[in-house]
Amino acid sequence: MSLALAVAATVYGIGCLAFVENGFWTVTLPWCGALPALASAPVFFAAWLGWRSHRLQRAAVLLFIALFTLTILANWPRGAFSPAWYLQPVLALLATTCVGVIAGLTMTMLAVTALLLGTWSYPGQDLGPMAGPDVWVHAISLSAVTLASALAGSIVNRLVFMALMTAERQRRKSFDTSRALRHREKLLRHAMRVETVGDLAGMVCHQLRNTFQVLLGHVTMGSMSGDDERQRRLVLIEEALQQSQPLLDQLMRMAHPDEGTSMSCDLAEVLRQFHKQAALVLPGCVQLTVEVPSEVPPVLLNPHGIVHALWNLIINAKQAIDGDGAITLRCGSDRHQVWIEVADSGDGMPVEVQERIFDPYFTTKAIGQGTGLGLTAVARFVRGSNGLIQVESEIGRGTTFRMRFPKATGVRSA
After folding, report:
1. pLDDT band at 51, cuts 50/70/90?
2. Domain C-terminal end among 174, 198, 224
3. CB hemisphere CA count around 153 (13 angstroms)
């Protein structure tokens, strides 16, 4: 807008000087000739430069200065009854609303002063019987309307400013609240992971203690044997250490804060790999079996999250078994979903416990032995993956947890 007005004013001013005799400043020409146009054109151009340099406040002030300059110089020789003076109240309202109270009122006062000076300089030009006191009544009335418009614009400016400040405070308050909620959610997820890591670490330490006893036996027997037997014992020690390495790797992955991202996963392969790791951790009195088809449709989820959920379910199943027992891992699919089951031969749960099993901090363990966040973490992960978790249990006949996930359409499994 500023650039267009600058070009139009420049062309009009040069045209008046070039093609109209005495076209510098005369009432016979529209907008009173070349002077108003050429005086306002540089200010319009400066406003455009301010906009180009992203100095919007300065650009807006210069734009209104140019508009006031154009209208004042165009109306000055025409007297107070020039119709274009009625643009002043509109400009005063817009100026105080858009560029602020001080700048808007300053420009308005200059415009009113110019109106009164123009009326004094040309009190009765071409007015006939309207010359004299009527001119001043009209000029003063128009000045009052202009000042009233400026005051109205000042009120609007303050109201808009207060509304924007209130909105900004609400936005910052909402941002701080959401950040605090995200922080608490992060702490809750960390607490859920810590509980699982603690239970898993207990079982890993139990298995490592057995492994260390085997290693000490090999070292003792090897120290009392010949070179061939000692070499055979070293090979057995290496195999035992290699079998223990996956336990420590799994524990480190579980403790890592990185939760990964969602991707297309083959749950059958995930369950096979998990069975190999869990078989090394569970005690010998608990038989772990896996029943998976050769291939299932891929699903879109976080592989670290599904492993975390499976460890939670395995740990709960192991704690539900008193003495010898069995845990079965199953996987399958139907028309729209792929499902995973973790079934145990434990004592089962009553109905009132099943209804609260996924509530945060609900636990049936003794005080100090559980936080009640393990199954909550499983339920949150399943819901976050657009899935569904179900539980079936009967006293004395074990418990089955089933996680259902929608098939991933149009993607290949990772």
Report:
1. very high
2. 174
3. 27
